[in-house]
């Protein structure tokens, strides 16, 4: 199963390599006390005697690196539930009436209905740029900005936040580089906005790049006189700088006309159409846009982001088989909210339990919701004495009559799918939890106790729902939920609760609670508690890490090179097992971040690991390459790593370094040679009787350069390569 909740491929289990001689390089240590409890953080000394440290769990107790009952179908459903939950947090009316909205994403991007992360700083990868080009709605502001960069390499792009100014600035940077024959991938760089103007470091500007600095809404634009020396430094480098700001720069009007462009937001209809056209035919897009309900909702969009989010909703409904006349048919939720309030205030505990559980398990199996409602009611009655009713008498009559706010969707057709519970209005999913937490104080403890075991549920989609429910509740009481729900999941050591905690933190990683959620993950990544560190790595393997890959990769690098040992220096088999499981968790997190679009940075980071002094980093880089090598690309049918390398020389160099490391005698893994053989067969460099034609024409040129780079690594590796090539050709000739 994939840590990211995405489909997993069946892979042969890895056999741990034998211990290798320690190198002379310094080795980071995670020490643990005499009782096996992790006591210190990476690189820090133990606490003085008498000073208590954080509670920790012995690593030998439990640390699962994979789901014991992995299911690819379950992972598909879980991924869909995660993306749906992330989309729901951007709606303009998550709560209704007098209750103010309490959460909203700030940096969430949609590409044809898909949620995607944009790195907070660093170069933009090919995957992100490809998606943006497919969905970007042209605006006069972006065209003017591209033309202005020819006049001055420093431009202030002025516009209100939330109107698509950052997307337009990125599009202008891509067009500027394209007009000069340069690749955009890796050359469009987002500067660290949290540093403000200090992110522009004189003397450290890259060549042939387009840099974008996004200033906060309250941060003033730079003075025009300050831009002149920056422009003088950028001209000989062939680079440009775009400062995205909400305020105009201060300076003479003549200079301002040369160094400032105003953002012109694209029309909501244009944004909506572009996102739909990326997934649907043009004729189908026009047909949907002509629907009265859809047209009204599009016209109400106040920003490009709202139009993109609306397109995501429409695409979700179209793929779900909703008829055209019911697309975006959102009725007034007032009656539904009133009915839900009456049921929550009613005397029937069973009706109330079913409603609360259905709010958490919206769109999940009706059987699961019923069983969980029964468990909720049992917890509610615990310690208060039973009222004499048997559990079989709690829910009587047809399910359709248990709550007027819950509908049963689907039919019993004998295919094992069954029915699902759906709330009568989407807003009830958030509203019920808010009302229970804030107005029905007697249900708070029951809700917390009930959510805990739900994070261990065998089905991934149910755990996603538990994670998102906990995240929503954390918006009302972050400290209580993080301490009593999320942290127990994180410290359990099991795969399932660990991923539930990671998904909850992913949901909270944008908006008002982003600083707290990210701070919690950052602290756990430095903990002596092995289970909490594993959860931090799992969280970095979600969109939380894809948004800040530098921080995520630094934490993963520390984990891979670290050792777990007792303070007295003793080691046992549990230490070795915990290290292997942590390494496996890191590998899966890296693959997940790669899948989310942080591709070039992952390749470069793994190549850097091959240069580090300790064999653990080199071994991890080799194993990650073996899991990345089979991944197919999006366009040419090549392996994705090959697609990245063919147009980006820096990625090609990193890829050569990775293959040389994986094929080296130090690794001694024949699986690496098998992976290289599959690439050669795919490129047509070796015959293959199972294929009627070469699957990936054009890949042979890249493979020639790759083999040349491997031979140049040294005579030993060159001899091994020639030997394997002779064996492969001999074997194929005999078939």
What gap, in angstroms, lies between the N and C termini? 36 Å
Low-confidence spans: 1-60, 91-108, 689-694
SS-derived structural category: alpha/beta
Q: Please, what is the average pLDDT?
A: 80
Count of beta strands: 12
Outline, from the CA principal axes? globular
What is the count of DSSP helices, taking H or I runs of 4+ residues? 30
Helix content: 40-55%
Beta-strand percentage?
A: 5-15%
Radius of gyration: 28 Å
Can you give keywords for this protein?
735 residues; alpha/beta; 6-stranded mixed sheet; ARM-like; ARM-type_fold
Can you put this structure into words, describing what you see?
By secondary structure, the protein is an alpha/beta fold. Helix 15 (444-454) packs parallel to helix 17 (478-491), helix 24 packs across helix 27 (649-663) and helix 26 packs across helix 27. It has a six-stranded mixed β-sheet with strand order 4-6-7-8-5-9. Strands 1-12 form a two-stranded parallel sheet. Strands 2-3 form a two-stranded antiparallel ribbon. Strand 2 (108-111) and strand 3 (114-117) form a beta hairpin.
Task: Please provide a brief summary of the model.
InterPro entries: ARM-like, ARM-type_fold. With 735 residues, the protein is of the alpha/beta class.
